[in-house]
Design goal:
The protein has 281 residues and is α+β, with helices and mostly antiparallel strands. It folds into two domains: 52 residues, no CATH class; 206 residues, Fumarylacetoacetase-like, C-terminal domain (Fumarylacetoacetate hydrolase, domain 2), CATH 3.90.850. It has six helices and 18 strands. The strands form four sheets. Strands 3-2-1-13-10-9-16-4-5 form a nine-stranded mixed beta sheet.
Length: 281
C-alpha cells in the first residue's frame, strides 16, 4: 500500500493510492495516517478495504508529510561508505545519531524556507523508515518486523550552524528542514531496503546518485542499536543517512539559494519536488 496525507497544512486528511495512482480518501475509515493506523492490526484493517470503492480525490491537492502525530524523528549521520570516502572522513565505529524537532516536518513538495541568517544550507536525500511497533532492545534479526513502511526524506542541513555549534542538531532544526513523503510505502512492497537507488537533482543537474547498499550500518543494525538507547514508537521516523553528492563536500562548495529547485527520490518510494525560498518571501 501507498499511504499519504493530503490537504492544507495542519488539516491533512488520510489517503491511499489506488492501482492507477489516484488518491482515494481514507477519512471515512481512519482519522489519520499515524501511530494507530500503522500498527500491524491497523495496516491489516486497511488491507481488507476495497480501495476502488473509496471516494476519489479530485484536482491536485497539496501532499502533506506522509505520517502525522509522531513522537520523534531520529537521524543518522555519516552512514554511507561513499559519503565518508568522498569527504575524506574516517569510517565511524558506531552510528552517529541526532534528533530533529517535529517542527521541521513539511510536505514533499512544500517550499524549503531558508532562515535569514542561513548561508550554508545543504541537501541530503535519504531512505526513511517509519515504525509500526513499540521497539526497545530489539535484535537485528527481528528489526525489520518493527517497520510499518518506508518513505523519502530530505534531511536539510545548515552546515555553518552545525560547525559553529559543534553538534549536528544546530544545523538540522529549522522549520521545513525535513520534507517527508510523498507517501509511505508499506514494508511488504519493499523486498530489501539495502538495494534501493537514491537520487537528487538540483536545478536539473544530478548531484546524488547512490544506493542504500553503500550504508555503513544497515537498517537492521540501526534499529537494533538505536532501540538500546530509546524506545521507538509507532509512527516514529528514522532518517538513515545520505550517500555522496551533497553540496558542502563539493569543490568549491555549493549551497542552497532562494529560487533553487530540487527533485529527489528513492527507488519505489516516489519523488519530492521542492522550491527553495527566502524567509519572509
Amino acid at each position: 500500500m501507498k499511504l499519504l496525507r493530503y490537504g492544507t497544512a495542519g488539516q491533512e486528511r488520510p489517503g491511499i493510492l489506488d492501482s492507477q495512482g489516484r488518491i482515494r480518501d481514507l477519512s471515512g475509515v481512519v482519522p489519520d495516517i499515524g501511530p494507530d493506523t500503522l500498527t500491524p492490526d491497523g495496516l491489516a484493517a486497511l488491507r481488507s478495504i476495497d480501495v476502488a470503492a473509496l471516494p476519489l480525490v479530485g484536482g491536485e491537492p497539496r501532499i502533506g508529510p506522509c505520517v502525522g502525530a509522531i513522537s520523534k524523528i531520529v537521524g543518522v549521520g555519516q552512514n554511507y561508505h561513499d559519503f565518508v570516502e568522498h569527504a575524506g572522513m574516517p569510517v565511524p565505529v558506531r552510528p552517529v545519531l541526532f534528533l530533529k524537532p517535529l517542527s521541521t516536518l513539511c510536505g514533499p513538495n512544500d517550499d524549503i524556507v531558508l532562515p535569514a541568517h542561513a548561508q550554508e544550507a545543504d541537501w541530503e536525500a535519504e531512505l526513511g523508515v517509519v515504525f509500526g511497533k513499540r521497539v526497545s532492545c530489539v535484535a537485528p534479526e527481528e528489526a525489520l518486523d518493527t517497520i510499518a513502511g518506508y518513505c523519502v526524506i530530505n534531511d536539510i542541513t545548515e552546515r555553518g550552524w552545525a560547525r559553529e555549534g559543534g553538534q549536528l542538531l544546530n544545523g538540522k532544526a529549522a522549520d521545513t528542514f525535513t520534507p517527508i513523503g510523498p507517501y509511505l510505502v508499506t514494508r511488504d512492497e519493499i523486498e530489501d531496503p539495502q538495494t534501493l537507488g537514491i537520487r537528487l537533482d538540483l536545478n536539473g543537474n544530478r548531484w546524488q546518485d547512490g544506493n542504500t547498499s553503500s550504508m555503513i550500518f544497515d537498517v537492521r543494525f540501526l534499529i537494533s542499536y538505536i532501540s538500546r538507547f530509546m524506545t521507538l514508537l509507532p509512527g516514529d521516523v528514522l532518517a538513515t543517512g545520505t550517500p555522496k553528492g551533497v553540496g558542502g563536500k563539493a569543490t568549491p562548495p555549493v549551497f542552497l539559494r532562494a529560487g533553487d529547485r530540487m527533485t529527489l527520490g528513492v527507488e519505489g518510494l516516489g519523488e519530492q519536488r521542492s522550491r527553495v525560498v527566502a524567509s519572509g518571501a
